Every structure is written in C-alpha cells, then in structure tokens.
Amino acid sequence: MPTRAFSRASFILARDALFPALRSVDTRGRRLAASFALRVGVAWPLPLETLSVLRSYPAAGSVLLELFGLATGIPTNRCRLKITFMSSPVPTRPELLQALRDSVAGGFPVAVAELSQLVRIPSVSWSAFDPKHVSDSADAVAALITGLGVFETVRAPIGSGTDAPLGQPAVLATRAARNGRPTILLYAHHDVQPPGNDEDWDSLPFEPTVRGDRLYGRGAADDKAGVMAHVAAIRSFVETVGVDFDLGLAVFIEGEEEFGSRSFSNFLTAHKAELAADV
What we know:
Number of helices: 8
Mean pLDDT: 78
Strand content: 15-25%
Distance between the termini: 44 Å
Helix content: 25-40%
Shape: globular
Order of helices and strands: HEEHHEHHEEEEEHEHH
Low-confidence stretches: 1-44
Radius of gyration: 25 Å
Strand order of the largest sheet: 4-5-9-6
Largest sheet: 4 strands, mixed
Number of strands: 9
C-alpha cells in the first residue's frame, strides 16, 4: 500500500477511535465542518464529534495536529486546521416559510413606498453638498429601524477621529443575542452619488418614478434599496415569529460610502463591541 494511502487510513482509524464518546457535546444548534489541510492543498475531513470538542476546547487542536503528524509522518508545521461554522441543518417548518412568504409579498408595496420616501432625500455625501440632507436621511433610516420595535439601541453617531475629518451620520442599531444564538450583522449605506445634470435623466433624480416594474431615482438601487431590503426583511421576520426571538441583530447603515468612507476606520474602532457578530 502506498505510504500516503496507509498514512491516511491510519489517521482515520485513530481519529474515529479517539472521539466516539463526544457526540453529546452541545454545538448550540450549529453545524460545523473542518479538515486538516496540507499547505499543498490536500485535506482530510473531520467528523462532527471531533469538531464539537474543538469548539469547546480549542487547545485540543494541537493534540489533533500531533496525532495527524504521527499517523501521516508529515511535520505538523506543514499542516493547518481549518474550522468552518455553518447554519443549522434543521429545516424550517413549512407553515412558517409560507407565513414568511405571505408577509414579504404583502409588505412589498409598503417597502417600495418607504424606499421612495428615502429616494426623495438628496443625501449626497460629497463635501460640496449640503450635509443636512445626509443628516435628514440618517434620521429617516433610524425612524424606520426604530419602528420595527425589536432593537435595544438605535442611534445615528457621526464618525470622527484625530486622523480623519468629521464623518457623515450613520445609523447603528443593536439587539443582543440570547440563549446561545448567533448575531447577524447587516450593512448598507444611505448616502448617494451626485446626480449630475437633470437633463441627463429621463425623470428627476430625486423624484422616484415607476416605469414598468422598476423604480428610478438616485439611490433607488445603490444603496437605499439595500437599506429597505434589511428593513423589510426584519419586518417580515418579526411578523412571522413575533418580537420575542433569540437571534441577535446589528444593523450598520453608513452615511459616507460614496465619499470614500473617510471616518470608517475610526467608526469601526469606536463601535467595535456593537458591531461584533457571528455572521
């Protein structure tokens, strides 16, 4: 038998003999995947029970690497252990999925109307334009997120720092996770590019206009549609499962993406704890 094939078989036997009693370790509803990987790209998948103990006891990774080296004869400094966390494979109940679909469909006209209201605010973040419009846009976004009724904090801070100019208002909303559930971070930006000349538009840039099945206007796609996608999705989720859910949420709506995100780095540093998330 070739050395590599024998080594792999030895490793699999050792690995499966070492961890059969660890299946009861709680993974909090999350599925994990991992593998040993050589730097040349050869990988050996690991079983779920192994991953459970790695999650609870990270130091066990060094033991596994030693085991891998003994079984394969490959120096452990040429190997790495890669662990990927994925969502739970437990399927959602069909009635919940249908209720969610119905909520999304029923809420679509409201979402389009609210998007149109955001598009009417000329929130150009470039320094030559009135910053009040960006502030008004941030307030409008914050009001939409507050209206969802599930966030513990909603505020529109202005990024700043000694090595960057004063930034444009952003919206940051958080809801803490409970009972071991993950936190999801959602990002979009509410500022827009300058519209250019009105005569180059088929309709005025800040007058949202429906033609066919599309909404036209500055920011109708990039990125106020992104803002409304988050708002509408959370609204439908809440309508389906109620306000008492364990999932954590963090929503960051930037106000200066179209002008180089001048205070972005400082904002991330100042709000690192609020922006911490699993997904």
